[in-house]
């Protein structure tokens, strides 16, 4: 059995942020990342201005990685379109590029990254890998994103769940500098241009709408969202990354001694708010600081405090999600979006920082 002072399960932005913070303080964290190399994942192509600021504090300039600046929001419901300026500049960057760069920085700072290793279960602060090896830790960081880890699954029973889908499509010329959100019953789709010039398409769909299968659901969505169907040339992409069981609005308000939940394991903000990466980075850094400077109660204090910090952004995002996903309220939302002051206020109220 190997032992680590700090063991981080998950190499996404939350886990990498925790690893980088710990390593730069002289700790020697170990990161377990199931991906053997660079990969795309379902969520997180949009970087809000708070995420950009946090990345720069970590020593990473997204624009130097090719991130495409975003200045405007285009909101689409049926054939109705509303555009407004964002409060500050955001950016589009693939998770493939972002995650790989953050993990490289963590390694350069002294973290050990075990790539291509999958954690199967956890008991207290011991993690069993798929090959049977067990790693023990003084501090355990659960950074598995929207995936559950046996023995540390989030208590989300009884919640309405969503499915996330992601694909890359050719970028329409008029998408440059814009985040485009298409609203429909039970969900929404986001489009932006990322660093490789392709358009990143992410869909959130109520899990109940997937009962007849993905193809039937996508066909129905294209009928409801004709301008999105036009973006796709009338034919949905063949290849998708997918994740099911997304509990939007969930927050971890408590934890066990020495166990830190970060990223989507700490708070799941509705993706239309565009603050998921900022939540991941902020929670990872906050948990690492609590681990470095706290006593035996550090994890519990961190989890309680971060749940309080995330409360307003998550609740406002949930209210916006509810409006977006229901036809009558969606009409009101589109009308309010024309008032740039209200749109900018909503954007600011959903920021974690």
Give me the side-by-side strand order of the main sheet.
Answer: 3-5-4-11-12-13-10-14
- The level of helicity is 25-40%
CATH topology (level 3) name = FAD/NAD(P)-binding domain
Q: How would a crystallographer describe the biggest sheet?
A: 8 strands, mixed
DSSP strand count: 15
Let me know the CATH homologous superfamily.
FAD/NAD(P)-binding domain
Query: What's the alpha carbon Rg, rounded to whole Å?
Result: 20 Å
Low-confidence blocks of residues? none
Order of helices and strands: EHEEHEEHEEEEEEEEHHEEHHHH
In whole angstroms, the N-to-C terminal distance is: 39 Å
Helix segment tally: 9
- Domain count, please report it: 1
CATH architecture title: 3-Layer(bba) Sandwich
Overall mean pLDDT stands at 94
Strand content: 25-35%
CATH class: Alpha Beta
Structural class comes to alpha/beta
């Amino acid at each position: 059995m190997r032992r680590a002072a700090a063991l981080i399960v998950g190499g996404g932005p939350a886990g990498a942020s925790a690893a980088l913070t710990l390593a730069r303080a002289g700790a020697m964290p170990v990161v377990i990342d199931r991906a053997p190399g660079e990969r795309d994942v379902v969520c997180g192509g949009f970087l809000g201005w708070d995420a950009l600021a946090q990345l720069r504090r970590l020593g990473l300039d997204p624009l130097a990685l090719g991130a495409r600046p975003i200045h405007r929001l285009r909101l689409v419901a049926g054939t109705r379109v509303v555009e407004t300026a964002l409060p500050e500049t955001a950016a589009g960057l693939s998770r493939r590029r972002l995650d790989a760069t953050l993990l490289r920085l963590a390694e350069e700072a002294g973290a050990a990254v075990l790539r291509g290793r999958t954690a199967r279960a956890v008991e207290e602060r011991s993690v069993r890998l798929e090959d049977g090896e067990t790693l023990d830790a003084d501090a355990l960081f659960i950074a598995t994103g929207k995936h559950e880890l046996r023995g540390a699954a989030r208590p989300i029973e009884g919640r309405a769940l969503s499915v996330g889908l992601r694909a890359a499509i050719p970028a329409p010329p008029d998408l440059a500098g814009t985040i485009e959100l298409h609203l429909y019953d039970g969900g929404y789709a986001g489009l932006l241009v990322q660093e490789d010039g392709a358009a990143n398409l992410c869909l959130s769909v109520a899990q109940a709408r997937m009962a007849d299968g993905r193809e039937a659901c996508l066909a129905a969505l294209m009928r409801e969202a004709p301008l999105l169907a036009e973006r796709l040339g009338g034919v949905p992409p063949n290849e998708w990354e997918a994740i099911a069981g997304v509990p939007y609005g969930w927050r971890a308000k408590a934890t066990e001694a020495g166990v830190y939940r970060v990223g989507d394991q700490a708070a799941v903000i509705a993706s239309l708010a565009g603050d998921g990466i900022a939540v991941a980075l902020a929670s990872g850094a906050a948990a690492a600081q609590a681990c470095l400077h706290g006593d035996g109660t550090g994890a519990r204090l961190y989890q309680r405090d971060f749940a309080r910090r995330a409360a307003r952004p998550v609740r406002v995002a949930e209210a916006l999600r509810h409006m977006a996903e229901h036809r009558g309220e969606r009409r009101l939302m589109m009308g309010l979006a024309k008032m740039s002051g209200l749109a900018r206020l909503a954007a600011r109220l959903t920021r974690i920082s």
